Sequence to fold (464 residues):
Amino acid sequence: MKREGFRLDELSYRGICMELLRNIWMLLLTALSVWLGVTGVYNLIHQPQYTAEATLVVSEKGNAGSYSSLAISSEMADVFSQVFQSDALRKKIVEDAGENVEGTITCTPISETNLLVLSVSSLDPRQAYIFINSALKNYEDVAGEVFANAALQIVQEPQVPSSPSDSSRFQKYRFILTGFGVLGMAVLLILLYAFRFTVKNRISAERQLDGTIQGLIPYEKKVKGKNIKEALILSSPTVSMNFAEASRRISSRLEYRMQRKNQRVLLVTSISENEGKSTVAANIALAMAEKRKKVLLVDGDFQKPAQYHIFEEEKKEKISLSDVLSEGENWKKACVPNLKCRIVELFQYKGISNPADIVDLASMKQLTKEWKEEFDYVIVDCSPTAVSTNAEIWMQVVDTVLLVVRQDWSDIRVINDTVDLIWESSRDFSGFVLNAFQNEWNSFNQEYRYGRYGKEKHQLKERG
Fold:
């Protein structure tokens, strides 16, 4: 099946946020990598500058106060700025220091004041300090003849710089580059999520799945605690009303469909593990039993049986389904009536490494024939199709097949290939149950409505 094209309404915005949250370690790792990388490159190619500063005030010689006119003060400040940057003063500084002092001197007037900020930047903090002190010591020798009536008073003495003066700009750029790095990784994660060919919401399921959607079961968090069952089954008092009613609606639809087609045995499977097929199968059986139907729940997963865990059944001295198939045990003897739930259980209590040794098609056909004579409905829970070939064998002996699809879990192409396999085996396909779907933040919790795409595909399959 070819994808019909990428559509924004097939994305789950909650799923995007959860994807970012699950991969927050990648975002943090990206931030750390960019931070350290920029720091390393900066340290390799950049030579830090050290700046010594002094604050000066322009005043009139012989007068303790400053110039009364700010305009005159500003003009004087501009002239002194030129003096401090003159070659004559630099020559005096070299003579006074007794060495070639490297650095850049700037004199910046402070707006609306008669203050100057004298700055000397150098690669060596010592030379920056020597440079500015020598400049303050010798500037009168250069400017004294020109401005006999003006003087500079030191307001703030220069200090030996202890850290680079250009580090603040580097910190700013480092934060910006780190932010871009994290943003880029987030965009990459979102794109990978968007183009992952899985069912992400109801619209995606309707358009992409090749069959009828029988219903949607909302995500339900398991409650853990003392004397509380973890299994999300209808008989548990911890399940929510939405979860229970969604399961009952699906069971009613399947029961109606099976009655109309004169079917008794339903196979519940999935593509991959952990999609919730066993819980769905158990709840379908329980919902049918609530209507006083005689229901047999069969655990046909020989490798990783789960039903006895769900119902918290003790496995000591109990006959497994594999014993019935391999050792000729009577299946009626292996059945355990669950009086509380009003169902009959035929479970697998032990995992088998090689189920092919015990699976016999003729024996399984005979079993299902006898089950139909004893029960109104038989619900079979088998292993996922991607894990074992047992599902293909079960498909040949049951009346209809139901696939459980979990949100953002299995590849849609594999799901639809499995549907094709079901139809090619001349088995009836009941459709899909969407399991553990999160409610979107921008939508209400409403029952899934069949769409045009799902109906058309199902009708085409029914025709042939």
Notes: The chain has 16 helices and twelve strands. The first strand starts at residue 50 and ends at 60. The longest helix spans residues 167-194. The radius of gyration is 40 Å.
